[in-house]
Design goal:
- The chain is built from two helices and 14 strands; from the N terminus they run αβββββββββαβββββ.
- It is mostly beta strands.
- The strands form four sheets. Strands 1, 2, 5, 7, 9, 10, 12 and 14 form an eight-stranded antiparallel β-sheet that branches. Strands 3-4 form a two-stranded antiparallel sheet. A two-stranded antiparallel sheet has the order 6-13.
Length: 157
């Protein structure tokens, strides 16, 4: 069973009315970062790549074709009986860009991050704080035995 946008909005700090959709809540873009090197993901080890923040010009990001790490502005708290799934807004897709987002586990709190892929050969322009993605919550059949306690909990607060 999925939550309504209004229900989800109670788990997002400072959400504005225009962010609330029928089955989700729009998340706003906070910051964009460029990857500087590669990372490593092993069985028992992870090394995240270094990155640098891209600064907007007059609050607009001018992004050429490529992949970027983005941070959302909104602080989301996933309830213990749900998971969060994030999708790009259709307007972003129609511009030639997409977002890849991982599953948001029960108990996660923070300003999540995602991968922004600009596919359009001409690049895209995105204003800081523009609604860029939509998150929806799906209620679990049973409450999990434990909630998320990983390294990304309380990130970017």
């Amino acid at each position: 069973m999925a939550y309504t946008g209004k229900e989800i909005s109670t788990f997002i700090k400072g959400v504005e009315d225009e962010q609330i959709q029928p089955a989700g809540v729009d998340l706003k873009l906070d910051k964009v970062f460029r990857f500087l090197n590669n990372g490593f993901l092993g069985k028992n080890k992870r090394i995240l790549p270094e990155f640098e923040e891209i600064l907007p010009t007059n609050d607009v990001y001018l992004l050429s074709k490529g992949s970027y790490k983005i941070r959302f502005y909104d602080i989301v708290e996933i309830p213990k009986e749900a998971i969060g799934i994030c999708f790009p807004r259709s307007s972003l897709l129609r511009m030639g860009a997409s977002i890849n987002c991982a599953l948001w586990d029960p108990g996660y709190i923070g300003r999540g991050e995602a991968l922004l892929n600009v596919i359009n050969d001409n690049g895209v322009k995105i204003e800081r704080y523009a609604r860029i993605a939509q998150i929806t919550f799906i209620k679990l059949r049973n409450e999990p035995e434990k909630t998320y306690k990983g390294i990304y909990n309380n990130e970017n607060l």
